[in-house]
Amino acid sequence: METIYTKFKSGLQRSKTLLVRNIQSVFGAAESWDKIDYEQLEEALIRTDLGVQVTRRIVEYIKEQYERGVIHTTSDIIECTKQLLYVFLSDDCETPVVYAESGPTVILMVGVNGSGKTTTTGKLANMWQQEGKSVLLAACDTFRAAAIEQLKIWGERTGCQVISGKYGADPASIAFDAVHAATARKSDILIIDTAGRQHTKKGLMDELAKIKRIIQKAISNAPHETWLVVDGSTGTNALQQAKMFQSSADINGLCITKLDGTSKGGVVVAIHDEFKLPIKFVGLGEKESDIQIFNAKVFCEALFSE
Amino acid sequence: MFENISDKLQDTFKNLTGRGKLTESNIEDAMRDVRLALLEADVNYKIVKEFVDEVKSECLGERVMKSITPGQQAIKIVNDHLVQLMGESNVALDLSAKPSIILMVGLQGGGKTTTTAKLAHHLQKEGKSILMVAADVYRPAAIDQLEFLGRDLNIPVYSNKGTSNVTGIATTALAAAHRDNVDVMLVDTAGRLQIDQDLIQELKNLKQHLNPAEILLIADTALGQEAVSVASHFNDALNLTGIVLTKMDSDAHGGAALSMRKVTGKPIKFVGVGEKTQDFEPFYPDRMASRILGMGDVVSLVEKAAETISEEEAKKLEQKMLKKKYDFNDFLSQLGQMKKLGGLGTILDMMPGGKKLKDAVNIDDNMLTHIEAILSSMTPYERNHPDVLKEMSRKKRIAKGSGRPVDDVQQLLKRFDMMKSMVSNHKKFPGMFGGGSGQYNSIKSSGQQSKTMSQKAKKAKRKKHKKKR
After folding, report:
1. Are B169 and B249 in a shared domain?
2. Domain shared by B35 and B136, yes or no
3. ipTM of the prediction greater than 0.95, yes or no
4. CATH code: domain of residue B55
5. Of residues B144, B152, B223, nearest to A233 (C-beta)
6. Which of B3, B46, B33, B77 is nearest to B258 (CA)?
7. Which class for A293: exposed (0-12), middle (13-18), buried (19 or more C-beta within 10 A)?
8. d(Cα B326, Cα B318) in Å, to the nearest integer?
9. In total, how many domains does chain B have?
């Protein structure tokens, strides 16, 4: 049977070995480590999209440890980096989904265009249905052509009902209806899929705030979870995305998608380090089952396994 | 979080002025900043290295070392190198065949389907007849999406939901294209990872069958270090003819563009700049260089202004101002124009140094909304005759109507008077409220673009923004 660990690992496999190989090639033969070596280590880390800030902190730490004679070998560096990344991440990065005490747990999915909101919504629905929970979906992307159809197909695949409206309709009103429907149908979970929006568009960001306000009119403490869906291949702009979505939509979690490619997803560490947002789920493929709960230990181990 | 390269360089060199000669280590420091800034802009680390080495050796030359403005010189060298890397000029599509086939490929979520419709619309405007082919048989509702877009644009779409044989779909579509005498056939394919052997093979087969004139890689501007792997894999497998950058309307610095261009040697042909079908433009390397450098993008701002504000309208307004007949109606319509341009924040972002100014004065677009609310609460008569607004009862009514305190109304009236007297003091006031269209006219009429805009004019523009608050 495929365990979570092996699956996560196989998804991330390509990236890890590369990082390890890079580090080994940098420090392998050298008698003593000099400036050039550190620059190369920096590059190896940058390649994983950890970002300049996190990378520099790691390199400085390793440099200091080496100069103090604490570490000597390549495997020391790998071990040291692994631990450091884990430190960056471990601060509340895994928090389980908190379900509402009564009534449906409302989850709002937000993010930039093409990050994978609808696919992640479908995968989550599938996962919770399998666990025996009843899930209702709300198609609040009334802007992009065929976005509603896309979610409806996921509804059919996973056996979830989908609340939808017309194209061009106010997404907040659909969200409102969906919350009422979820309460009436005694659904355990309601996942609201919203339209992709660039974080730089003020009008669209305000729309998100409105959706949240309207949902609160139906259930005062909803949405219980607001998750930003981030494409794992995004570079430093992911930080900007997190910042803007946090200020407009008050996000309280992240879903990282498309980590089955060669993308290292290092941006996860950078975002968490800066905004202390927990990472809820990781998307690892196109099938409905290709989703995993984020686990920092597994992530760090997987990043360095050979 | 992010300090742009041009500011960084300016700062680095500012500390050095007045010290006489620059030393090699001064340059070395500056290059370290360039390196970090490029890495933060997501330029691939390997390319950064080459780039910095080249720029450094040039900076060590006489021109910079002996210049009184080494900062400016260094920025110019960095900028020139960026433009050169980006490709000197825009490269058009090769549409000589009939039908010319364009294959759209890329990762999931990059914007292929949207871009297919945008490109189709763009070519349609050039008078080409077009057929779009829905060959994404994997993502749920991808075919529906292209069909919807085709219906909106009145462009035919070939699809066949009954099969997942992509080559089959394409072959039938090609026959239809020949039959209908279509000029360009656009093939929208499914998103795929560059390392997915089976799906890449599918594209190879498609290429063999169709012999496309263009194979375009559709890539997100916000891509990170992976951009190089993505672009090189797709290029190795398919020999791309160009790249389309999508989601350029975000604030990503777009270093990925540089990486992809450099690693494939293939030109970036178009950029997607918004969600609507018309939000699509040819790619201009010099503008991208400015963006990565963080030098602002005045050309785009001027173009954007030209799109939203008609020249006639602007002239009329300027005449009115000169004749001291400027009233609240004009003020209101100008506010509307600014909003169309994306609000103060967006405008400042596009101006050189605008980012800094924005941080310094904490620009808030709500301010505009408040002003608009106040203006909208006036009667048409009041807007035409601002003088009657001296009556307190009117002020109170307007404050109530707009939900703003009376103080705000007072302040607005005061500022409006100030502006008017300012205008009458100047025989020829170069720009109006916020300095938008007046300057735009002068730029446009002289046929010149931003580069000729003197530092002075820019400063004046900034000042005006400040004053407005």
Report:
1. yes
2. no
3. no
4. 1.20.120.140
5. B223
6. B46
7. middle
8. 9
9. 4
Among B28, B54, B86, the domain boundary falls at: B86
Which of B151, B226, B346 best probes binding to A when mutated, by most A CB atoms within 10 angstroms?
B226
Please indicate, yes or no, whether residues B288 and B312 belong to a single structural domain of this protein: no
**A275/B contact by beta carbon, under 8 A:** no
Q: Which percentage of chain A shows pLDDT scores above 90?
A: 50
Beginning with the edge strand found earlier in the chain, give each strand of the sheet holding A291-293 in spatial order: A161-164, A135-140, A189-194, A105-110, A225-231, A253-257, A279-283, A291-293
Interface probe for A, chosen from B2, B46, B51, B108 (most Cβ of A below 10 Å), is B108
pTM listed for this prediction:
0.77
In a domain? residue B268: yes
Question: Of A67-71, B209-213, B335-339, where does mean pLDDT reach its minimum?
Answer: B335-339
- Mutual orientation of helices B354-361 and B455-468 as an angle, nearest 10°? 20
What is the tens place of the pLDDT at every residue in A47-82? 888 888 889 899 999 888 888 888 877 778 878 888
Enter the tokens of residue A49.
């999209």
| Distance of residue A51 Cα from the nearest chain B Cα, in angstroms | 7
